[in-house]
Design goal:
Strand content: over 45%
Number of strands: 34
Shape: globular
Length: 386
């Protein structure tokens, strides 16, 4: 692990600077003493930091001794009444950014992302709904719950024409292939199932054999065929083919539980651990991670890639949400044996941080086409324009 500097800023800095008050700023490093100072509307109070107030919702802060710079963005809108009964579990946003969906208890709330107006509240699961995804059409929803079932919903009329059962423990993750012709689900029962939406049948079941499957994502391999990536309780990050009898293509083994995963290109994956590590892995050589990025001991709750910007957004249990730019992880790299830790970690430094509640844990996160949406334990849904 190559330690790096990162910057944190008072969560309500926008209100503080607008009121012409001082707001605190800190620069952190795992091997150095934390550097503390203050910012004002006009400038930093000492030479350790400099700042550029780009707008009322965006400020660029630089730690001068390390030449580390981070852009901080506050929410464009906040919705406080969508999940007033229960803590939100999962969230997603349409490709256009017009609609969002958040699950809260057994309810599935579809809402207008800018106004917060509720379009529909869908009910039908008999236990809490843990995950939700929009189909590519943005007109249909897929949900998975603690009742071990998957449901497909029409946003237009609120109907639920399809319910899929077969998992033996709660559903933990959802993904789609062939624009929703087939869907993939993971469960705390340790399995990954591939389903046909047309026939409503389970086509195959994968068993990563590493305890609970916490999350799944879809990637592609050299031939362009699909792969399913699984992050598992016992530290395994597995890649199975969606063809060829679902053969195991690659497996990386970590020392602690992996909570989330995200493909960033054909060969490279990013995964998060329960101990706060963000790992980049080359599936062609899984003997060790390419990089390990860590800033705290709080678990990584979510990693999401926005394909429009190539940003990889990471959310931690302590409420920190920031983006990494994996610019060095291109598929033109052919040397899989070289020690690329230093160069990769330099490119994985944080470039943008989303300001939110004061250390409120992030429950779920979605990013599409430069619009980011998050739900937190304070029951507020936040929308950012990044």
């Amino acid at each position: 692990m190559v330690p790096i500097w990162w910057i944190s800023l008072q969560h309500d800095w926008s209100e503080g600077l607008a009121a012409d008050e001082k707001v605190w700023v800190s620069a952190h490093h795992l091997n150095h003493k934390t550097c503390h100072s203050y910012l004002t509307k006009r400038a930093a109070v000492d030479e350790k930091f400099s700042s550029n107030l780009i707008s009322s919702k965006m400020v660029q802060v630089t730690h001068n001794p390390s030449n580390t710079s981070t852009k901080f963005i506050t929410p464009s809108v906040q919705h406080k009444q969508l999940t007033d009964k229960n803590m939100p579990f999962s969230i997603d946003i349409t490709g256009s950014g017009d609609l969002g969906v958040v699950t809260s208890g057994k309810d599935i709330v579809v809402f207008e992302s800018r106004s917060g107006a509720v379009r529909r509240t869908l009910t039908g699961h008999v236990a809490d709904v843990e995950c939700v995804k929009f189909f590519p059409s943005d007109l249909v929803l897929l949900t998975g719950g603690n009742d071990m079932s998957l449901k497909i919903w029409s946003i237009e009329d609120g109907s639920c024409p399809v319910t899929l059962t077969g998992h033996k423990r709660p559903v933990s993750g959802l993904a789609m292939i062939d624009r929703g012709k087939h869907i993939v689900s993971s469960s705390l029962d340790g399995t990954v199932k591939i389903w046909s939406c047309g026939t409503q049948e389970c086509l195959s079941t994968l068993t990563p054999d590493s305890g609970k499957v916490n999350e799944i994502q879809i990637s592609s391999n050299e031939s362009g065929s699909g792969c399913v990536v699984s992050a598992c309780e016992r530290g395994a990050l597995t890649v199975h083919s969606l063809h060829d009898n679902n053969s195991l293509l690659a497996q990386f083994q970590h020392s602690s539980e992996l909570t989330t995963c995200c493909p960033v290109s054909q060969h490279y994956l990013v995964a998060g651990s329960v101990e706060g590590e963000i790992l980049t892995v080359d599936i062609r050589n899984t003997s060790k991670p390419l990089t390990v990025h860590k800033r705290s001991n709080y678990a990584v709750s979510s990693i999401v890639r926005d394909q429009a910007t190539n940003r990889v957004w990471c959310a931690l249990r302590d409420g920190e949400t920031f983006s990494l730019l994996p610019s060095s992880l291109s598929d033109t790299t052919t040397d899989t044996t070289a020690d690329t830790t230093l160069s990769c970690d330099t490119n994985l430094s944080c470039d943008t941080t989303l300001s939110a509640g004061d250390c409120e844990p992030i429950c779920s996160f979605a990013a599409k086409n430069s619009v980011v949406m998050s739900s937190a334990k304070d029951r507020i849904v936040r929308v950012y324009d990044v």
